[in-house]
UniProtKB/TrEMBL annotation:
Entry keyword annotation includes Iron-sulfur: no
One Pfam family in the UniProt entry: Response_reg
Residues bearing the modification 4-aspartylphosphate: 55
Superkingdom of origin: Bacteria
Keyword field: ATP-binding, DNA-binding, Nucleotide-binding, Phosphoprotein, Transcription, Transcription regulation
UniProt xrefs under CDD domains: AAA
Species for this entry: Bacteroides gallinaceum
InterPro entries on file: AAA+_ATPase, AAA_lid_NorR, CheY-like_superfamily, Homeodomain-like_sf, HTH_Fis, P-loop_NTPase, Sig_transdc_resp-reg_receiver, Sigma_54_int
Protein name in the entry: Sigma-54 dependent transcriptional regulator
Length: 455
């Protein structure tokens, strides 16, 4: 029995309490015992036990176990995450099943076998530690998110009004949502808005960029692992799905998942439970999934590179985010927003854009969408010495001089991507981190694109 913790034992037989105290004392941090179920609230508040060992039958009723179930209900009202192990001398299968359904963790018969009792309590202490760690992580996530204002989705174009209307229509649903759109269109921002306007508004919002996680780390990141599960697993760690339980899990770039990883994700979604690496017992989860991708998943299903059954699970609702080039004067609204933001950040005083600068922004095709516009405004604010930003303050690495918009439309996607990467590497003098930042992607994604394009 490796883990140590605090155990509260509730039994009306003082001889049982004495024996259990004597037996468990070497294996625990501290033990409290009581013969009075009425003192449960007091001990849970002052002692805060990790595990509660609860007798099922007290003096009022020595057979049915109803008193034990009443105590369990009281315990779970005080702490829904409490770990409770039932004890009874009148064990039967029906009671065991009923106990587990009512929220007990396990069931021990009297008289007990020492090794079985120690093994049961060891598992219960591990479960308690796991639940507390998940709770701490969820609190950290909420603390990080709790100070944020309502996510701001800027845009008055008909295309963006439609997106906003759809988000508000979904505010009372818990359905899984698939967000589709090109890179840089703001799919992560839409995901946060969907979470904000949802029944899980106050719960955790956990994100995973599947494009930045190597395949060999996918399971440990998503499902977690137990101590000793692999060489560097020095302590147990909950996965992202476990941390997100009760809240929302945002899987970005889900189109990057390999078929084996798709199968593992599908199993977790269907069964609503996961098993940590190195663990035996599964963990129940309750997550609302929001996924995002720039890939055509329906086409990939036809090609055999994406599972149709997984697509059906994640796209109860599909929400398409329009590219920036289809949003008209939203470009100028966003430009003003980023101008204000970077004036404040870099202590600049640029007051606006000239008419010619606005026309230049409106004519550009924006292959990198809102993310590219944001970086373009940031560079302009940093480098400009003018009160008004002018056309020559804006540099578009995807175009050639004197032909900003025409050439960009002639390029196919692969040529455009190759040219953007080459320009980013040139601008960053070969610094991969800086090049990835300029392109608005992760280093891992940049490496994959370099390999794909043979650069």
């Amino acid at each position: 029995m490796e883990p140590k913790g605090k155990i509260l034992i509730i039994d009306d037989n003082e001889d049982v309490l004495f024996a259990l105290n004597l037996l468990l004392e070497p294996y625990t941090e501290k033990i409290k015992v009581t013969t009075q179920p009425a003192r449960i609230g007091h001990f849970m508040t002052t002692f805060q036990p990790d595990v509660i060992l609860l007798d099922m039958n007290f003096r009022r009723d020595a057979i049915s176990g109803q008193e034990g179930f009443d105590c369990l209900e009281q315990i779970l009202r005080i702490d829904p995450q409490a770990v409770v192990v039932f004890m009874t001398a009148y064990a039967d299968t029906d009671k065991a099943v009923r106990a587990i359904k009512a929220g007990a963790t396990d069931f021990i018969s009297k008289p007990w076998e020492k090794e079985k009792l120690l093994a049961t309590l060891s598992s219960a202490l591990k479960l308690s530690q796991s639940r507390k760690e998940v709770g701490r992580l969820q609190e950290q996530v909420l603390a990080l998110k709790g100070n944020d204002d309502l996510p701001e989705l800027i845009g008055n174009s008909p295309a963006m009004q439609k997106v906003k209307e759809t988000i508000f229509k979904l505010s009372d649903t818990d359905a899984n949502i698939l967000i589709l759109g090109e890179n840089g269109t703001g799919k992560d921002l839409v995901a946060r808005m969907l979470k904000h306007f949802s029944p899980r508004q106050e719960a955790a919002f956990v994100t995973i960029d599947l494009g930045s996680i190597p395949e060999q780390l996918f399971e440990s990141e998503l499902f977690g692992y137990e101590k000793g599960a692999f060489t560097d697993a020095r302590k147990s760690k909950p996965g992202r799905m476990e941390i997100a339980s009760g809240g929302t899990l945002f899987l970005d770039e889900i189109g990057n998942l390999s078929l084996p990883m798709q199968a593992r994700l599908l199993t977790a979604i269907e069964k609503k439970r996961i098993t940590r690496l190195g663990a035996i017992e599964p963990i129940q989860i309750d997550v609302r999934l929001i996924c995002a991708t720039n890939a055509d998943l329906h086409k990939r299903v036809t090609e055999g590179s994406f599972r149709q059954d997984l697509l059906y699970r994640i796209n109860t609702i599909e929400l398409r985010i329009p590219p920036l080039r289809e949003r008209g004067e939203d470009i100028l609204l966003l430009a003003e927003h980023f101008l204000t933001k970077y004036n404040r950040k870099y202590h600049k005083e640029a007051k606006g854009l000239t008419r010619e600068a606005k026309n230049k922004l409106l004519k550009y095709n924006w292959p990198g969408n809102v993310r590219e516009l944001q970086h373009t405004l940031e560079r302009a604010v940093i480098l400009s010495e003018n009160n008004l930003l002018r056309p020559n303050d804006f540099f578009f690495p995807h175009t050639t001089a004197g032909n900003d918009n025409e050439n960009i439309q002639e390029l196919n996607l692969e040529k455009l991507e190759r040219k953007a990467i080459e320009q980013a590497l040139k601008t960053s003098c070969g610094n991969m981190s800086r090049a990835a930042e300029l392109l608005g992607i992760t280093r891992f994604t940049l490496y994959r694109k370099l390999e794909k394009l043979g650069l």
